[in-house]
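Writing this down once: the sequence line spells out the residues, with the fold written below as integer tokens. I am pasting one below:
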Amino acid sequence: MRSPRFARWMALFAVLLAAGCASPPAPQFTDADWVSASTTGRNAYERGDYRRAAVAYDRAEQRARALDDAEALALSAVNRATCLLAAGQAADARKGLAEALADERISPARRAELLVAAARVEAALGKSDEAVARATEALERAPSPALRAQALLAKSGAELAKEDPAAATKTLAGMSTKEWQRLPASLQAEQTDLRARIAVAEKQPAAAMTLQDEAAQLWKQAGRLPEMARALAEAGRQAQAAGDLAGAADRFYRAARSLGAQGLQPEALHVLEEGVSCAEQIDDEAVAMKMAGLLVTFRDEQRLGK
């Protein structure tokens, strides 16, 4: 239910209106069917269509089994796990990763990739001890900088889930600031997001807000717009927790607008509702009018079936 004040703002707006939201590596093998499935998966992932990407990488896994190619199977399992994690279906990735890890023929570098993917999956499933063990094993194999960063992120995230922010901070310090800055923007964004979550655990909302603002910019650099908008919304929540209601309302509005423009209407509406709540608390008619305008836009798009 909307408050009478918000209803008044909506009515006023109606009068004025009437007056005038790390990607998988590229294919490395030569079998045409495997390359085709992997390319389809990568393209779908880069569009943000994670479920379609996972289906394509599942076909790549099947082709790798037909070829009895351990390396191709391992890479396909890692790629599929990446997509399933992004789609919120981490549990579905476990079997493929376990199958690939059980094959003794895979190279040490590929095994490290599998271990990192497994650590991230276990962390997503709330299996913190398993995640730490997998990540630690991967780190012992002296992986590449990007893979090392992913292992540190998985380990740190699992430690934070175990309510040990000090350990999580120490793990992230396993790479220097300069080392993190040399990595792709997506990994920098994940690290910044994790630092923000550590700040939340330590009851430092203002610091968490600043870090989520930074994460949003990094996700934007990485071309990951849904994550950008979600980081902006989280920055709004932390601004609200810090008592900065005007800053929170601004971030909620921008996040909702971005999510809506990306076709993520249900998520956009939820974020917009958070913004409306802030606008009502500060009793700022100009802000509320912006919120109302965006709500009208979302409703019109729903009505037109966009």
